[in-house]
Amino acid sequence: MTDTSKTTGGLIVPRRTILRGAAAFGLSTALGAPFINRLHAQEAHPLKGKTIEMNILGIAGWVPSSLGVKMSPLFADFVKEKYGYNVSFGFQEAPFSDLFQKAATSLVTKSQEFNIIISDSQWLGALAKPGWILKLNDTIAKNKNLQLDWYSQTVIDTYMTYPDGTKEIWGLPQEGDVEALFVRKDWLEDPKENEAFQAQHGKPLPKTFEDFENLTMEEFEKVAAHFTQPDKQRWGFSQQYSRVYDFATCAFNNYLWSRGGEIWDAKTGQIEGILNTEENAKSLQAFKDWLKYCPPGSTNVGIAEGIDIFTQGKVFSQIQWAAVGPAMITDELKGKVLVVPPPKHGSGASAKRVYSMGGQPWVVNAFNDETKMRVAIDFMNWWYQPDTALEFAKRGGNPCDKTTLSRADFNDINPWNRTFKYMLEDGRSRDFWHDPKYSEMLAVQQEGYSAFVTGQSSDPKQVLDYIACQQQQILNDSGTSKIAPSDMCATTSL
């Protein structure tokens, strides 16, 4: 595998960094795990006696993707016992920013190179519209194990359906993911820090899940400012500002949505006049302003860089994906990190938090032959069994079914599980565009946000005008929207 820590265009998450943290949470669980129910008699199955090789395409250096393959020998044991056939899995991978192109290049030729794909949620439209992936409605109707009670409507909207708002199902949740706030619990419990904060603000530092659940950005800013101590090479906060993939976009959407803004009208495809408002411009300025609590060089921080500065003890807190919890909480940091809901925006009863959804669905290659399609469906039936979902969670994964997440012991399996459930509830997290033109729209947006936070552009409203005009043109050209850019767009630039 290529060392993704040295790439510049993809997800720069060093594989050994991710896997080292993940191992602490059970990736080494024996493949002979006792949860497989041994059967005394095999069931009739059309593949009995056959040997099949399958291939999964997933995200390089991303623990949730590798978990699906690391657990595949359990599936092989399961079908050997239950159905009498042999199966093995190969795994190919690419960074986030390259994975869609790798999948598309194969699927456009109707290849069976990748039988099952771990897709980013925003790619559902681009994969579904050309007919490259299997529409799952009929499959679900025929398989009771796939008729799950999902934890929230947000799960369905993010990982399963396209077009938005319909009941056409193209994906099934592989890894649920939400934004969480990782904080140094040991710093919060330092008596000297508490004494200094109490003296300055007349109140103690927040220390519990409930304290942070009620915290607003204005209140949290005092905490971040307190721990910003450059003379000690410590800073109070970190979030993603990088131009790579969707890093800055997901981080800024947290501000935009939580402060009441919208990015578009999904029904009409209108962007201009919705994204580029004065209020959203104020949110973009607020997003940039938090750089004063971040370490130098933070405009280049993405997922991997964020993990590094947190685990190296440079920052008190970081808004980061729950999926990288195993890497954020290393052996050295066990018991020293608290994972809590990120702050609300606003004040009083109107304060709210609406943060970006992450995570990936499984999608099935529509060009699989009959044999490989049957194995793919068998795999999905197995993946969503309660014992499999629980094993996934114990290894550091984030399942999305209500049965698993409602277990009395679920919150205790991983340090981030309580916050994962909390942020997965409807109204606290959301996804953005499943439109087939996702990648083009994202590229424009990342260009604009990066230009603003790095100082190449100084006017947040002008930046949003540029993005809205460009995106409106993209959707109008593609036919997604009948709304053309306004005359103002002819003179708009960064």
UniProtKB/TrEMBL annotation:
Cellular compartments annotated: Periplasm
Mind telling me which Gene3D superfamilies this protein's record contains? Periplasmic binding protein-like II
Key word Heme present in the record? no
What Pfam families has UniProt attached to this entry? SBP_bac_1 (PF01547)
A GO cellular component entry from the record: periplasmic space
> Which keywords does this Swiss-Prot/TrEMBL entry list?
Periplasm, Signal, Transport
Indicate where this protein is primarily found: periplasm
InterPro entries referenced in this protein's UniProt entry, alphabetically: Bact_solute-bd_prot1 (IPR050490), SBP (IPR006059), TAT_signal (IPR006311)
Q: Which family does it belong to?
A: Belongs to the bacterial solute-binding protein 1 family.
Write the protein's name. Answer: ABC transporter substrate-binding protein
Taxonomic lineage: Bacteria, Pseudomonadati, Pseudomonadota, Alphaproteobacteria, Hyphomicrobiales
